[in-house]
């Protein structure tokens, strides 16, 4: 069974190579991409069942035994995130197929998009199953190189400009990460995560703190944690709708995943929880206040993305098995719901010719299906019961309340306020875009005039038809968001078990006992 693990990365890379060979054959590229991601989804589901039943597995590749070789490590957390990621990538791929066919691939050139898309997926999968810091770095670099291509597709002025900012920030983060890896190796003589966790206690606390802060700084930039989130709201909205949806749903979660490994495995005895609590509170509040001040839907969602990363950091700062499990559930919830919302906004942009809530109006009559596709994930992200957003927040607040310190109470209040403001920002956008009539009264225009100076408030694009496959892909993702609520009990149980097992840790002896596959 462990032989399946390398295929999680190998299949999309092989698919990308095939797509490059058939650069002018759109149908072949689509078929290869769909088959690759579907296969990874099935493999990840199988591995999730296996590791949840029998425990984690590790695979050493390239002929070197554990821990000397490149180690791929799969536990419940890694398998779950790979499965969710592949589902999201598959849904967005179907969305992009419809968009490309309708627009003659103007925004997503076939010869470039599909290979880069699969390489992006391979990088994400590699990061999730990396068993050592350097392989984690390689995973980051694979996905970042692919994201550089995807974020500048179309080569418009705005995309090149924001793409440069994204690339510079990513390179700075990567340099910090590489420097931290060098420092860890110099101090401990290894980059294997299990060996690091066993040897870290040998270092003085001040050295541990320096290494800890270096890794957190690098991962916080990738996760868009305040105040290192300045780059995100300007970078994501300019990309094509499918690219924006994938970036918003997945890329920051890779950074959060790295923070989970850092906090729960590498630095168990070096406590920076209070710092994480303050950062989490600031990320939640500043992010959502930014969203309230926006008039463009993609920017609103980008700022809510920043704020909800704060919930994930909040869960890690609590640092209990229950909180880690709740954080994992919230990550799964947010990946799916945030991606769905960006897909819905992509449909709004095509139907209305704009994503500005000052310009979009009357869509309830013109496109009632689109109203539903936006409304359901919006109230879910806002945390309205009984949806998964409410369940995830409640689990986090419950874990914090059990700790019961005054700081935890402040964070709970901050989390509740963020949830209310999220609901306000998203419902205001829904009200103005769908319920506002074509002939606005002077009173209505005066009431929203304060948004006129918001960035991109006057942006307009060409109105285009919405292919059925784009609507179907978005509706499928909405169905998945509902399934998160319907099956919240079993999914939350899996996440809580993952949190407990992460807290228990794994020793080098156990890792070697899993066996190595070349």
UniProtKB/TrEMBL annotation:
What membrane topology does the annotation report for this chain? Answer: Multi-pass membrane protein
Q: Name one GO molecular function term.
A: NADH dehydrogenase (ubiquinone) activity
Which domain of life does the UniProt lineage start with? Answer: Bacteria
Q: Tell me the GO BP annotations in alphabetical order.
A: ATP synthesis coupled electron transport
Which residue windows are transmembrane per the record? 6-23, 30-50, 70-98, 110-130, 136-153, 165-189, 209-232, 239-260, 272-293, 300-322, 328-348, 369-387, 407-426, 469-492
Q: Which UniProt keywords apply?
A: Cell membrane, Membrane, Transmembrane, Transmembrane helix
Location of the NADH:quinone oxidoreductase/Mrp antiporter transmembrane domain: 130-414
Instruction: Give the main location.
Output: membrane
Q: Which InterPro entries match?
A: CPA3_Na-H_Antiporter_D (IPR050586), NADH_UbQ_OxRdtase (IPR003918), ND/Mrp_TM (IPR001750)
User: What is its subcellular localisation?
Assistant: Cell membrane; Membrane
Q: Would you indicate the residue range of the signal peptide? A: none
Q: One Pfam match, by short name?
A: Proton_antipo_M
A GO CC term? plasma membrane
Return the similarity comment: Belongs to the CPA3 antiporters (TC 2.A.63) subunit D family.
* PANTHER family to which the protein is assigned, alphabetical: NA(+)_H(+) ANTIPORTER SUBUNIT D1 (PTHR42703:SF1), NADH DEHYDROGENASE (PTHR42703)
This chain belongs to the protein called Na+/H+ antiporter subunit D
State the species of origin.
Microbacterium enclense
């Amino acid at each position: 069974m462990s032989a399946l693990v390398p295929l999680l990365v190998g299949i999309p890379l092989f698919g990308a190579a095939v797509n490059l060979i058939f650069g002018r054959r759109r149908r072949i590229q689509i078929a290869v991409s769909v088959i690759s991601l579907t296969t990874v989804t099935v493999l990840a589901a199988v591995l999730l069942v296996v590791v949840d039943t029998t425990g984690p597995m590790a695979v050493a590749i390239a002929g070197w035994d554990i821990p000397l070789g490149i180690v791929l490590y799969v536990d419940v957390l890694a398998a779950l995130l790979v499965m969710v990621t592949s589902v999201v990538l598959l849904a967005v791929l179907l969305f992009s197929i419809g968009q490309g066919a309708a627009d003659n691939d103007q925004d997503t050139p076939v010869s470039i998009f599909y290979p880069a898309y699969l390489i992006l997926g391979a990088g994400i999968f590699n990061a999730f199953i990396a068993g050592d810091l350097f392989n984690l770095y390689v995973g980051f670099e694979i996905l970042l190189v692919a994201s550089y291509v995807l974020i500048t597709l179309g080569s418009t002025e705005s995309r090149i400009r924001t793409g440069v900012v994204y690339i510079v920030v990513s390179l700075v983060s990567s340099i910090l990460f590489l420097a931290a890896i060098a420092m860890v190796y110099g101090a401990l003589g290894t980059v294997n995560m299990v060996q690091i966790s066993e040897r870290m206690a040998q270092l003085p606390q001040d050295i541990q703190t320096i290494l800890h802060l270096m890794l957190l700084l690098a991962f916080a930039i990738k996760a868009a944690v305040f105040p290192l989130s300045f780059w995100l709201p300007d970078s994501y909205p300019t990309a094509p709708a499918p690219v924006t949806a994938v970036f918003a749903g997945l890329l920051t979660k890779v950074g959060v995943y790295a923070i989970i490994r850092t906090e729960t495995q590498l630095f168990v005895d070096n406590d920076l929880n209070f710092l994480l609590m303050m950062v989490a509170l600031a990320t939640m509040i500043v992010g959502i206040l930014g969203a309230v001040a926006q008039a463009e839907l993609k920017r609103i969602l980008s700022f809510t993305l920043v704020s909800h990363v704060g919930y994930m950091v909040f869960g890690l700062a609590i640092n209990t098995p229950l909180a880690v499990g709740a954080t994992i559930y919230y990550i799964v919830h947010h990946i799916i719901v945030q991606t769905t919302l960006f897909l819905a906004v992509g449909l709004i942009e095509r139907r209305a010719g704009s994503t500005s809530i000052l310009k979009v109006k009357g869509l309830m009559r013109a496109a009632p299906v689109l109203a539903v596709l936006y409304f359901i994930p919006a109230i879910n992200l806002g945390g309205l019961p009984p949806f998964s957003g409410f369940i995830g927040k409640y689990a986090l607040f419950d874990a914090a309340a059990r700790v019961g310190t005054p700081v935890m109470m402040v964070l709970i209040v901050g989390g509740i306020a963020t949830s209310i403001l999220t609901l306000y920002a998203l419902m205001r956008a829904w009200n103005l875009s769908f319920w506002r009539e074509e002939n606005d009264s002077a009173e209505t225009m005066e009431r929203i005039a304060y948004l006129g100076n918001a960035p991109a408030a006057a942006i307009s694009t060409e109105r285009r038809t919405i292919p059925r496959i784009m609507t179907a892909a978005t509706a499928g993702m909405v169905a998945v968001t509902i399934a998160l609520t319907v099956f919240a009990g079993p999914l939350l149980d899996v996440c809580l078990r993952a949190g407990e097992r992460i807290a228990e840790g794994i020793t080098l002896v156990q890792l070697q006992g899993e066996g190595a596959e070349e």
